[in-house]
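hey so i finaly got around to running the thing on Transcription regulator PadR N-terminal domain-containing protein from Lacticaseibacillus camelliae DSM 22697 = JCM 13995. pasting the sequence first so u can double check i didnt mess up the copy paste, my clipboard has been acting weird all day
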Amino acid sequence: MISSDSMRGYNDALILAVLAAGDSYGYQLEKAIRDRTGGAYVIRETTLYSTLTRLVKAGSIEAYAGEISYGRPRTYYRLTAAGKRVLAAKRKEWAQTQAVVSKFLSAEE
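ok and heres what it spat out for the 3d tokens, dont ask me to read them lol
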């Protein structure tokens, strides 16, 4: 399993990438991240919701009330135009990060 510390800087990008495929609510986001990583990374609930709050405040995603579950509306999230731009920048940054880190960690010297 990958540590939370290793993934901390990538939570925004992971959530934005999941939302690029369609609107989702908290548990669906957590499950999508867990499933796509084969269980190697499980985002903590507190981390997920604090990241969602930060992304809403930044204008990268929007929250809206969806279907009612257990007597209250479920909060769904969707990617905004600004969020699509942030995701594109995060993807570019990730490619650059991989290129730099692999220079040090790909082979033993």
